[in-house]
Write a structure and sequence with these properties.
alpha+beta; six-stranded mixed sheet; five-stranded mixed sheet; 75 helices; 41% helix; 13% strand
Length: 1902
């Protein structure tokens, strides 16, 4: 019977049995495309037999088995690897042409995630992660981003689908036998046929293994490095056909291969090739000596190359080949390998057998246009003749060789056995680790029924793997159970056994499956049959004979199948069915779940139980495992596992009891005799492992049973029950003698497993106990653990530890108890580890000493287990001791790491993850601490579970940081310090643009219903919410919308005079409309500015472009007026440019962050030809906002070939703007085609429209901006002054071309200041000079541009050019520009200033030699030029003096215009100058929406007659647009690049009519976009997620004009240019302060601004927003500052909602602070709670509320003498010590202004009441107790807890320390003080003890 007992003992119950069917199988049936044919083949075998009854058994067997096996396969892997996720299975199922990927688990329903259908049958499908990175070095692989893909292998290609939705397809240059996923990418095995024998001379064979690192990379051969004994290792291609891969693992990255010739398995490490090895391989294949040797490598290359270059499939010879033999794969026709002459050359070309007959003789293209049959083989025989020397010439046209990317290094080969076991290839390989983390590589050799396990480990320097010896386990099948570090083995007898490593754990019992009894496994005649020997039985070999090719295509699965065939055949013969089902094989292990295939064809999925479920047991096991030697640890865990997982095992509740009994038994205790373990009640049966085997006692019972009952906990409970007293039952006397008797003979059995390790285990369990003290949620666990520790401490006679436990848990730890004696003789066997200390380590004591500034030994710590202790120790060291290095270096001297003596632990590696990463800006210790804690992964949840005294220093640091955090801290830090505003900002920073929630905050959705009638004016996507905050007092935004809309008819107001006929009146109206249309057509440019970047398009809808409406309505009858009536002449093509601008304006609404792709751009192409101009503008706009780079080159080419002039202009400018300053070659080519000057002189004349040439020239300028590219500059320089050609072909509109060349030249040499001598003749050259010498302050150049100062010279200059010259001169002398009218006038030469007329005079001064007209024109143009330069200098700055100065000049020009002698200067010139000044004004105030400028624009909008032509309207509305740039979100920059763009856009010569491009190409007006930059900062309240007002303090850096200054702005506001600023600060008191420091770099702020400028802010408690309370008089704190204390009493809980929105605090106020009727003595408590709440809320420390209340409760409990554990007293002690600690006092001195962290009145009260309580206790007889304790005598039980409180609170040393002092003889207090100095006991405690020690009975109480 004992035998059976053993069996039963080690049974392990598997849980959760479910029938398993691959989910994909079911889905396939319903998936479209699934043909009935396939369905039929997927049916289970039995159904098929019934349908084809006539077919012979073998036939149907063959059909079913082989086909079915080939048809479906699946694999499972673990899904949901993130922490906290439910872990579930993912399944990849393959059948026919389909691959189905499904996910699901018990808790989540199964669901198909993706299904793929491909064209030809799937050979294999697998998951593979590819690394995306440019740098392909080894180090990248640890951190790089990964593209997770599914790869589907077909016969000729492999498809890869990434999770992001990218699809790749790679054609395969050879037939693939197998694909393997590796750490680096895919590994291919080429399928080789046995007939591949190279004809002719011996050639170097082709590689058999290849790798592909990314779907877009080439397939490259694998190389291997064979380590030879003599050290000379060679690197060469893997060419051995006998080498088959049987297994690949990604971590560690190893490959296992099987040599079919030597029948041995080897292991290799897979890694990247090193550079020197690449060269070695390539060199080696180059120098072959004879030409024959040279050829193959290059022909291989050619072969692979030809395919990988992506040849069209038709010409690829492989396709031809496969089409001829498409049937060959299925029928396996003999001709395939027979080399019949008709196809030999084709075969030579086929990638499967290349290059058996010289492929390399075909060069270049010739290779591809071979036809299939008409070639005679003789033509290529040349390559077979050995003596032919022409081979060398073949190499000439070949491509360079393919560089290998992966290499395998040999690691290990199994030992050679005496008999060669044929067919001993491993059918299953896996890596498993045992319970102690030792790794094994296990491979199953099915023919031997053996599982071979090789142990391996990393070498100490982590560079290589070291393999150990091999262990064989008899097995039919096996699978790893990764989650519990074991493996499941199916023995040949049919038993399932669990192993960990090679240690047997026990049998697995599966409920519902009969366990194979001994009889059955004996009766089965397995071992004797020939089936299991190596030779195969005949019928099967026949069966396989005809199919060998097909079967052997994929060696690994087929072997498995053939073994299953034996089983099924054998079953049929022997009719074993009645014996019941048994397990055939194990498959698909995931975590702790595996699938069992049963003999009846069904499958079940089982779950193996975990090692421990309760956290306490897990932690203890971990600690013990860490400390024991590995072999013993494994045995201990095996023992525990088999106890814990026995069938009908324990429930969660009793797991701990089970653990204690199991552990103590293993230590040698007899737990049955130990009182406290004997009383454990177990639900469920105790498995026999625990109960020691002894004879059963007689049925009658014994006296012991009665004792047992009396001693039980239950009995004691009943005794103390009230009912007992009321019934007057007298307590039973338990016979004490019996108990004493028990404790006498208890001794430990020293022969047990763990006996010698008891001290070590005791110590680590003590450390676990200290660790659990730091988690307030583990209180129950500590109670359980104390029992065990006390027992061990007693038996080991460790008094100090017992004292320590007593002080922690006085009620649990009695002074006396059962002791188990340990023989003196045996103590020698006990192994006392070096780290064992006689003083118990105490984390509270350690922290307390630090706070008091005493020296402490380092605190012992178990890596990976006591992480909290480590954290607390290091943070205290950093924050209290101020040692910054404590968290930097690995081995801190505050911690002593405990390591098990024998070997180095894995924990060393774990340490690295705590390295202090690159610290963001950290100034103080507090910040240092907080940043470090966040890096280690410490969260607020963790902080809440720390006891409040320990957490206090950390909370204090957090409180310090919360005030003034740095803006660049990572999200985790901000969350930890409770600044949601910052953490939200930080996390927004990581979200890719376009997906962030910011855009939702700041984008108004649907406009309200009132606006429906004006839905299409193109301005309704503006963000109303922010604009209403910026301009809150008036409706200026609506006004701007009204001025800029061009989609509604205009009012044509013409009075019909009596003499007008109706027809004339209609003409009159149409003429008036024509005038108005000049204005309407000029509006879109301004509208584009206003709506800049305000819209995120929906990718499924085209962009709405508002129509340009050129009709009018005439009042009073509202009749329509139309220009197309034919009554008046309308200029042809009048609207073409207006439509273009309209398209640009619509396109510029699209924000740069939008998600746009090539398809969407093409999708917007209009159907009607008349909309082509708008589309052209749309393309240009896309270029300006950077989206045009996504347009495919093909489409660009497509658009340009249409020859539509506008489209070409828009596209060329757009593409160039998108590639600004990149010198992109492809774009340069594109532009050059359109510029005759850049084409070679001999090229054909292309007829390029003039405007397109202009656009192309400017495009060159943009693409080469700021590069000073020599050739480009020279060409452009020549183009500025290019004379008209011989046939006058360039004479029209030459000005705009010349200007464009000048602008382009200026851009190319932007700010370079090269000394290029230019003949200053025309605008282009002037501006080119201005840009080349921009901001260089180069006087000599500027003087050339000085306005002429004599009348004679003035006559030579066109006055308009003076404007440009002045502008150019001022831009060069950038730093001289001053914002006042005196400086503006200083630009006017003396002669003009003295003689110029002031326009208001009536009389004209008459003078003969002065031409007044010239002088006055020169005067106004020079002033306009100076004003324009002022606009450039202060663009976007809102500089007040510049604004006032320009505003004055604008007013002046307005008055000049109406002056009587304006005609002298000419109204056209005045209008031009006024427009220029207005634009300058708008530039200075860009984005600000200034009212005065808006009034000017509105006034000019109304002027429509006379000189007001299209160009002036254009200028005025551009000014309006710039004023409201991007709806107030954008401003202008003054960088060089921006000024260049603005010069192009605001060129001060405006078109006369809408088709005028003579002087300046209109399309260039939109280049202002390149100068616009987002500078609006919008504070968003983090709680309500709405924009709000906040006060900013902006600090400017000092410059030569002003000192460093501060300015206060109310945000939302436009910031000044960032390079001028030092820092930006959100100022209190309403919002939490926030500092953005720009001295460290502007990147952070730039990214905020680019994401709509959202800056999250957080209201402080008791404050209202500026909107609700503009003056700040309503805030609660304002009312309470007056008299704080009286206020606190009267604090009404209702008002709390104004302070905080925290639901916890609101509920606290609701339930604990509201007075109710008849309060009685609770009133005082209520007042306390109210004042505490008030304190917490007003001081912004709500997290301290629980601490206050806990302290109060603890003090009350002590007062009631109900302290059962002293941890709360410890916490209070730590709090008091913290506030009196030196570091805290120093901090208070440095920041005296800061509010106290805890109320200064609260702590002294707490301290006093504790002192009082303890002193009263002393007087009431406690002194006797203390004396007894100190002198080591027993004391009363009743006083246990109060004594412990006294000892803890006053830090009284343990009695063991006192004898050293010699207490008794002291006579005076002074002497005592001296003696106690070394015991570090506080004086006030000594005062209490003095009376006892001095023998003076009166206690001295302070």
């Amino acid at each position: 019977m004992s035998n059976f007992y053993e069996e039963r003992a080690t049974m392990i119950a598997a849980g959760d049995l479910q029938e398993f069917v691959p989910f994909g199988r079911d889905h396939c049936k319903h998936h479209p495309n699934a043909l009935n044919l396939q369905l039929r083949q997927l049916q289970p075998a039995s159904e098929l037999w019934s349908s084809d009854g006539a077919a012979g058994l073998v036939g149907s067997l063959q059909e079913v088995t082989i086909h079915e096996k080939q048809k479906e396969s699946w694999q499972l892997r673990r899904g949901g690897s993130k922490i906290g996720e439910v872990d579930y299975d993912e399944e990849l199922y393959v059948a026919g042409n389909m691959v189905i990927w499904s996910k699901g688990s018990k808790s989540q329903a199964l669901a198909v995630y993706k299904a793929f259908t491909v064209d030809s049958p799937v050979q294999q499908a697998l998951w593979c992660d590819f690394i995306i990175s440019q740098d392909k070095s080894e180090k990248v692989y640890s951190s790089a981003e990964v593209e997770k893909c599914i790869c589907i292998l077909q016969s000729s290609c492999i498809n890869m689908h990434s999770i992001e939705g990218k699809d790749y397809i790679a054609s395969l240059p050879f037939q693939v036998a197998n694909v393997w996923p590796t750490k680096y990418g895919l590994l291919f095995e080429r399928s080789t046929s046995s007939h591949e024998v190279p004809p002719g001379p011996p050639r170097e064979p082709l590689p058999t293994m290849f790798s592909m690192l990314h779907p877009l990379d080439e397939i490259t051969p694998l190389v291997y490095k064979s380590g030879s004994l003599f050290g000379s290792s060679r690197v060469q291609y893997v060419v051995d056909h006998a080498m088959k891969i049987v297994f690949i693992s990604t971590d560690p990255s190893i490959v296992m291969t099987y040599d079919t010739v030597q029948c041995l398995h080897s292991v290799w490490v897979l890694r990247k090739v090193k550079a020197e090895e690449e060269n070695a391989v390539l060199k080696f294949s180059e120098q072959g000596g004879t030409p024959q040797n040279v050829a193959p490598s290059s022909s291989l290359t050619a072969n692979l190359r030809s395919l990988s270059k992506g040849d069209s499939p038709v010409t690829s010879p492989f396709q031809n080949y496969s089409s001829i033999h498409s049937q060959s794969r299925s029928t396996s026709s003999p001709s395939l390998h027979s080399r019949s002459p008709s196809i030999s050359n084709m075969a030579a070309l086929s990638r499967a057998h290349s290059p058996a007959s010289g492929v390399h003789s075909f060069t270049g293209v010739q290779r591809f246009n071979l036809s299939s049959h008409n070639q005679s083989p003789r033509r290529h025989s040349i390559s077979h003749s050995p003596d032919s020397n022409s081979n060398s010439s073949f190499l000439a046209p070949e491509t360079e060789p393919i560089v290998p990317e992966l290499c395998i290094d040999h690691l290990w080969t199994e030992a050679i056995t005496n008999i060669r076991e044929k067919n001993s290839q491993a059918s299953k390989v896996f890596i498993t680790s045992d319970l102690c983390g030792q790794k094994f590589l296990c491979f199953l050799v099915e023919s031997q029924l053996q599982l071979r396990c090789v142990k391996f480990q990393e070498s100490n320097d982590k560079t290589q793997l070291i393999f150990g010896s091999i262990t064989n386990i008899q097995a039919k099948d096996a699978a790893p159970v990764e989650k519990i570090d074991t493996m499941l083995v199916l023995e040949s007898s049919g038993n399932l056994v669990l192993y960990t490593g090679v240690v047997r754990v026990g049998k697995v019992f599966i409920p519902g499956l009969p366990a194979p009894s001994l009889t059955m496994s004996n009766a089965m005649p397995r071992p004797s049959t020939p089936l299991d020997s190596v030779s195969t039985p005949t019928p099967l070999s026949k069966l396989l004979g005809s199919l060998d090719e097909v079967v052997l295509l994929s060696p690994v699965p087929e072997l498995r199948d053939s073994s299953k065939l034996h089983d099924s055949l054998y079953n049929e013969d022997c009719t074993f069915q009645q014996l019941g089902t048994y397990v055939l094989s194990i498959r698909d292990p995931v975590r702790n779940r595996v699938t069992l295939e049963l003999s009846n064809g069904s499958m079940v999925r089982i779950t193996l139980p975990e090692i421990a479920t309760s956290e306490l047991v897990q932690t203890c096991l971990q600690a013990i495992k860490f400390i024991l030697p590995k072999e013993i640890a494994v045995q201990m865990l095996v023992k525990w596992y088999s106890v814990h997982s026995a069938p009908g095992g324990p429930s969660y509740h009793s797991e701990w009891n089970l653990f204690v009994i199991c552990l103590m038994n293993m230590m040698g205790y007899n737990t049955d005799r130990l009182a406290w373990t004997r009383n454990f009640d177990f639900e469920g049966s105790l498995s026999p492992v625990i109960a020691p085997k002894k004879a059963r006692p007689s049925e009658t019972g014994s006296d012991e049973d009665w004792e047992y009952l009396l001693n039980s906990d239950y009995h004691q409970k009943v005794e103390s029950h009230l009912l007992n007293r009321s019934l007057c039952l007298s307590p039973l006397e338990v016979s004490q003698i019996k108990n004493e008797d028990l404790s006498q003979n208890l001794s430990l059995d020293s022969s047990t497993l763990l006996f010698s390790h008891i001290p070590a285990m005791f110590f680590v369990l003590h450390l676990v106990y200290e660790e659990l003290k730091l988690n307030t949620l583990m209180g129950e666990g500590i109670h359980s653990l104390v029992d065990l520790l006390v027992q061990l401490a007693r038996d080991l006679k460790l008094e100090p530890y017992l004292d320590h436990y007593y002080r922690d848990y006085p009620t649990l730890v009695r002074t006396t108890g059962q002791v188990c004696t340990i023989d003196q003789g045996q103590t020698g066997f006990m192994h006392h580890p070096p780290f064992f200390t006689s003083e118990p380590p105490s984390i509270y004591q350690w922290v307390s000493s630090c706070l008091k500034g005493e020296e402490m030994p380092p605190y012992p710590y178990l890596p990976g287990i006591c992480e909290r202790s480590r954290l607390v120790v290091l943070s205290i060291a950093l924050y209290i001791l101020g040692d910054e290095s404590s968290v930097c270096d690995e081995s801190s001297h505050y911690l002593s790491r405990i390591t098990p003596a024998p070997q180095k632990s894995q924990a060393e590696q774990e340490e690295n993850r705590f390295s202090f990463r690159h610290s963001p800006s950290v100034s103080s210790l507090a910040e240092r601490l907080v940043v470090w804690m966040a890096n280690v992964g410490f969260t607020l949840r963790d902080l809440e579970t720390l006891p409040f005294g320990i957490a206090l220093p950390i909370r204090d640091a957090i409180y310090h940081c919360r005030e003034q955090p740095a803006a660049d801290w990572p999200e985790a830090v901000c969350l930890l310090i409770g600044r949601q505003d910052l953490s939200k900002q930080a996390c927004e920073g990581n979200i890719p643009k376009g997906k962030s929630s910011v855009t939702q905050v700041l984008s108004s959705d649907v406009p309200s219903g009132t606006e429906t009638e004006e839905e299409d004016d193109g301005m309704n996507d503006m963000n109303q919410e922010v604009m209403s905050l910026i301009w809150s007092e008036d409706l200026r935004v609506q006004d701007v919308r009204r001025l800029l809309q061009s989609a509604h008819p205009v009012r044509v107001n013409v009075v019909q005079y009596p003499e007008l006929s109706d027809h004339e009146f209609i003409e009159e109206k149409e003429n008036r409309l024509l005038q108005l249309c000049q204005r309407t057509m000029a509006l879109p440019v301004g509208r584009g500015m206003f709506t800049l970047f305000s819209y995120h398009p929906v990718p499924t809808e085209p962009l709405p472009i508002p129509k340009l409406n050129l009709t009018g309505r005439a009042p009073p009858r509202n009749t329509t007026v139309d220009l197309n009536s034919g009554n008046i002449d309308v200029p042809p093509n009048m609207t073409s440019w207006a439509s273009f601008h309209n398209g640009v304006a619509a396109g510029l609404k699209i924000a740069p962050a939008s998600q746009i792709d090539s398809a969407w751009i093409v999708y917007n192409k209009p159907k009607h030809a008349e909309l082509a101009n708008e589309y052209a503008g749309f393309l240009m706009a896309l270029g300006l906002n950077g989206h045009l780079t996504k347009l495919a080159t093909l489409n660009i080419h497509d658009y340009l070939t249409k020859g539509h002039e506008m489209t070409s202009i828009g596209l060329l400018l757009g593409v160039s703007a998108a590639k600004l300053g990149t010198m992109d070659m492809s774009i340069t080519r594109l532009l050059s085609i359109h510029i005759p000057a850049l084409l070679p002189p001999t090229s054909t004349e292309l007829d390029v429209p003039h405007n397109v040439q202009v656009a192309a020239v400017v495009g060159i300028g943009l693409v080469y901006q700021g590069t000073a590219h020599r050739h480009t500059a020279e060409v452009l320089l020549a183009e500025i002054g290019r004379p008209p050609g011989p046939e006058m072909e360039y004479c029209t509109d030459r000005e705009s071309y010349s200007l464009a060349a000048g602008l382009a030249l200026g851009m190319v040499c932007l700010g370079e200041g090269d000394t290029i001598n230019v003949d200053v003749t025309c605008p282009g050259a002037t501006l080119a000079l201005a840009m080349i010498y921009l901001k260089t302050n180069n006087r000599s150049i500027a003087d050339w541009l000085q306005a002429p100062d004599t009348m004679y010279l003035l006559d030579f200059v066109k006055p308009e050019f003076l404007l440009l010259r002045t502008l150019a001169r001022c831009l060069i002398l950038w730093d001289d520009i001053l914002p006042n009218s005196k400086w503006v006038d200083s630009n006017v030469p003396q002669i003009i200033r003295e003689n110029s007329i002031s326009l208001s005079e009536i009389e004209l001064p008459c003078s003969e030699d002065l031409n007044l007209e010239t002088l006055s024109q020169a005067h106004v143009y020079i002033i306009a030029g100076a004003c324009l330069s002022l606009g450039f200098r202060f663009a976007g700055s809102e500089n007040l003096s510049a604004f006032n100065c320009l505003h004055k000049f604008a007013k002046d020009f307005m008055t000049y215009l109406s002056a009587p002698n304006a005609s002298v200067t000419g109204p056209y010139n005045l209008e031009t100058c006024l427009s220029v000044v207005l634009l300058s004004l708008a530039m200075v105030m860009a984005g600000s929406g200034n009212l005065k400028v808006l009034q000017l624009c509105r006034f000019l909008h109304m002027k429509t007659g006379g000189e007001m032509n299209y160009g002036f309207h254009l200028a005025h509305h551009m000014a309006l647009g710039i004023l409201f740039l991007g709806g107030g979100r954008y401003s202008l920059s003054t960088s060089n690049s921006s000024i260049a763009a603005l010069l192009c856009a605001l060129y001060p010569h405006f078109p006369a009519h809408s088709t005028d491009n003579r002087y300046h190409l209109q399309a260039l007006r939109h280049l202002y976009v390149l100068a616009a930059e987002p500078r609006l900062l919008v504070p968003v309240d983090v709680d309500t997620n709405t924009p709000c007002y906040a006060l900013l303090e902006v600090t400017y850096k000092g410059t030569q004009w002003y000192e460093q200054t501060k300015e206060e702005l109310m945000a939302p506001t436009l910031l000044p240019e960032l390079h001028l600023l030092k820092q930006i600060k959100v100022k209190g008191p309403r919002y939490w302060e926030l500092l953005i420091d720009l001295s460290k770099g502007t990147q952070h702020l730039k990214s905020i601004l680019s994401k709509d400028g959202v800056l999250f802010v957080k209201l402080r408690a008791g404050q209202l927003s500026y909107k609700d309370d503009p003056m700040g008089w309503q805030s609660l704190l304002a009312q309470t500052v007056a008299n704080r204390n009286s206020e606190a009493r009267a604090f009404k809980p209702e008002t709390i909602s104004a302070f905080t929105s925290d639901p916890a605090l609101l509920s606290f106020a609701e339930y604990f602070c509201k007075p109710t009727v008849n309060m009685g003595q609770k009133q005082e408590l209520l007042d306390l709670f109210s004042s505490v709440l008030y304190e917490c809320v007003t001081q912004e420390t709500p997290e301290m509320l629980p601490a206050y209340i806990a302290m109060d409760q603890a003090v009350r409990r002590l007062g009631r003498r109900e302290m059962s554990e002293t941890s709360e007293l410890w916490q209070i002690k730590l709090v008091l010590e913290f506030f009196s600690s030196r570091s805290h006092q120093e901090r208070l001195q440095t920041h005296p202004k800061r509010g106290l962290f805890m109320n200064s009145e609260f702590l002294p009260v707490v301290k006093c009441s504790i002192d009082n309580t303890l002193d009263q206790w002393l007087q009431a007889g406690g002194d006797v107790c203390v004396h007894a304790y100190l002198s080591g005598q027993p004391w009363e039980e009743s006083q246990l807890s109060m004594l412990a409180c006294f000892l803890v609170y006053h830090s009284v040393p343990a009695p063991r320390h006192l004898p050293t002092v010699g207490l008794e003889g002291s006579t005076s207090f002074a002497e005592l003080l001296f003696k106690f100095k070394q015991l570090k006991m506080p004086v006030r405690a000594l005062l209490r003890l003095a009376p006892l020690l001095l023998g003076n009975p009166q206690p001295m109480v302070m």
